[in-house]
Amino acid sequence: MNYYVTYDELKTQLAERKKHHEERAEFYTQKAVRLDKELKEAIDAGDVEEQMRTKVSNSYTNQGSERDAARASARDHARKSVAFKWKHDHLPAEASFLISMGDAEEFEFVASRF
User: What is the dihedral of CA 8, 9, 10, 14, to 10 degrees?
Assistant: First the structure.
């Protein structure tokens, strides 16, 4: 099944998703910076427990340490922001679109099934 989307709807969606991913990239970048600072302070203070908290593998995220997970999330959101900007900037002017459910997920109109 396909869904009808107007030019304005798609243009707005792409701009909003670009902004969202820019903001999330900045959030995770700042989190990684904060965790780097906390680790440095813990090392300087000889606080082994704090060093372990910020440095050791986090099995919940499966992305290594909390710092590594924040960096990976920042990269992922930055990549998505660039992709949404490109789609926004290259959208055919004043066209209407028939999109599939897969397209709706890609454009983040709906949550992914995965």
Answer: 100
CA distance 50 to 54: 6
Separate counts of helices (H) and strands (E) for the chain = 4, 2
Contact 86, 73 (CB under 8 A): no
For the purposes of burial, counting CB atoms within 10 Å of the CB of 29, is it exposed (0-12), middle (13-18) or buried (19 or more)? Answer: middle
Cβ of 49: how many Cβ atoms within 10 Å? 7
Tokens of 79: 């990549």
pTM metric for this prediction? 0.80
The pLDDT of residue 54 is 60
* CA 65 remoteness from chain centre: 18
Q: Of 104, 107, 102, whose CA–CA distance to 21 is shortest?
A: 107
Residues of the chain with pLDDT under 50: 57-59
